[in-house]
Amino acid sequence: MCRVIVLVLAAAYAVALGFLAIGRFGLLGQEPDPVAAVPLVLLGTPWIWLVDRAPQQFWPWLAAMAPMPTLLLLAAVCRAMAAKRT
Fold first, then answer.
1. pTM (2 d.p.)
2. Residue 17: which of 31, 29, 27 has the closest Cα?
């Protein structure tokens, strides 16, 4: 079950990155949208508050990577639980 949760979170992260690319760069005939990163902000909520401590030029990149620590921590916990079971 834990592995399924990690895969669902990874898929949601990939979809949110896709929404960002489509909305930010106007891909697929879409108008550029300034709120295209909202799904990424929601997925990276615990870490997104640290982004404003970095220089402003790095904010878009750090915001796009904000869900990654959650995904890595969850994968590590799942791996530890699987190792404990065996």
1. 0.84
2. 27
SS3 26: coil
Closest CA to 73 of 10, 20, 11: 10
Whether the Cβ atoms of residue 20 and residue 3 lie closer than 8 Å to each other: no
Give the separation between CA 69 and CA 50, rounded to whole angstroms: 12
Alpha helices (H) in 1-66, listed in sequence order: 2-25, 38-43, 45-48, 59-65
> Which of 21-25, 42-46, 69-73 is predicted least confidently?
21-25
**Single-letter residue type at 32:** P
Delimit the domains of the chain by residue range: 2-85
